[in-house]
Amino acid sequence: AHRQNPETKFFSPLLYNLPPPPLFSLACRARFLRLLSAGLKSSHLSSDMVAAFVKKCVRTATLVPPPSAMWLLTTAHVLLQRNQEGCSTLVHFASDSSSPINKEIPEAVSSDAFSYVKMVGDINVAEERKLRLASMSLWELTLLKLHYCPAVSDIATIFETDLSEPLPSGLSPDDLLNTTFDEIVAREFSERPGGKQGNNSAAIPLDFHM
């Protein structure tokens, strides 16, 4: 089955199921994420499956620690850059319940990124897969822009810029593989006015309010 149709029968479903949220809390996650990143470059991934991976990365970013959220967001951004034609609606799709496309979406076909793989591999649901993509806009980015960690919220705002522009220096997925929360905090303190190089009397927020 793998030789005959690796995309729908083997490769894509297994790859899609690999990164559950708890994995991103493991200390040894870097090697796995490096392999996952290599898998996402595969030519076996169709545009709709790439869109599903983008959605899953952004959804998972809302559930994991900041270092992993940063890696997931930059990975999603890179995937969008490589597949702008097929995935642009994820960022720019207008969610309107009265639109014809939404009226055609069956109730069972939800926009839950974690259940999307149930549709994969069944050649009889190709049209439903396309309809689902239209309902999978990246609404999580609005939430992530309010993230308590400034480093995460800053990356979330990058999706509002031109997707053809490269990520800022130091923000590629490879750059963030081994980033720790302590490093993020240390960077915030050193860059903030009143940090190591500034006036120590500057106020630093200690809580977060919606």
From TrEMBL:
InterPro entries: CCAAT-binding_factor (IPR005612), Noc4 (IPR027193). Residues 190-210 are annotated as: Disordered. GO terms for biological process: ribosome biogenesis. Residues 5-156 form the CCAAT-binding factor domain. GO terms for cellular component: Noc4p-Nop14p complex; small-subunit processome. PANTHER family: NUCLEOLAR COMPLEX PROTEIN 4 (PTHR12455), NUCLEOLAR COMPLEX PROTEIN 4 HOMOLOG (PTHR12455:SF0). Belongs to the CBF/MAK21 family. This is CCAAT-binding factor domain-containing protein. It comes from Lankesteria abbotti.
